[in-house]
Amino acid sequence: MNALEAVLLTIxxxxxxxxxxxxxxxxxxxxxxxxLGVEGMMIMGAVSGFAAxxxxxxxxxxxxxxxxxxxxxxxxxxxxxxTLVTNQVATGLAxxxxxxxxxxxxxxNFTGFPxxxxxxxxxxxxxxxxxxxxxAFGQDPLVYGSVAVTALVAWTLARTRIGLVIRATxxxxxxxxxxxxxxxxxxxxxxxxxxxxxxxxxxxLSLVYTPQWIENMTxxxxxxxxxxxxxxxxxxxxxxxxxxxxxxxxxxxLYAQGVGIAVAPQLLSSxxxxxxxxxxxxxxxxxxxxxxxxxxxxxQPFVPEx
Length: 306
Fold this sequence. Notes:
By secondary structure, the protein is mostly helical. The chain has helices at residues 2-30, 38-56, 59-83, 88-107, 132-137, 141-159, 161-171, 173-178, 183-209, 221-231, 236-258, 265-269, 271-284, 287-291. Helix 1 runs antiparallel to helix 11 and helix 11 packs antiparallel against helix 13 (271-284). The longest helix is centred in the N-terminal third of the chain and has 29 residues, at 2-30.
């Protein structure tokens, strides 16, 4: 039971950054924007959050700086793609390369330093329940926050006027503009939200998952988050399932190495990425799932009539 509890706790911490980054990118894509810079925003959130937490001595400060950094990088992407109307794919890729390089430069001064870990929440009585307590009531605040944000996004997109405007902007930006909706402003806001989630996901890595700075510590999680959005067919509830599924695959590979299973470690390390490819192949083979909730204007530039 103790071993199972440890595995579940590790799966939850491994899945949380995937869920945060994916739910932010889902909102961005539902507004009709394709931001491939998730990895860059995550790594910048990780290094800035760690640097702030180490300097100030507060994990909460690190979380706040991670969010602000993610928003700042995202707004740079928004300015380039929405105001200057640059190619979204090329700009997103450039943003990732920029983030990885800048994070490596900033993080050089923090390599090997002890981190400031964000403490888990402890609920009296409930946390002390055997097995269920630590798993359900002993997580850090960002685990609960990731679930709350996902629920809020699902409710907003499906039940509110703001969600309707976001979906309309992604489905047909010309019609949305004709109806008087501020397409560019909506996309700016959604991109900023996606950046906040990606920065927070990066901060989670350096403040909770591995409380230290390691170069390239995102290890492709930003790309997996992008794949999760397609895997979920742009539905928030499926993002949760996908994030925890991929988190499970990630941790199972690590535990398999730990117990000495006679499998090449390179193969076990590649399991999350192989699972990503397999999931995308399955989804692309189903025309109904491919079209379900797919924003018709995703990746297309919009220039309002003057």
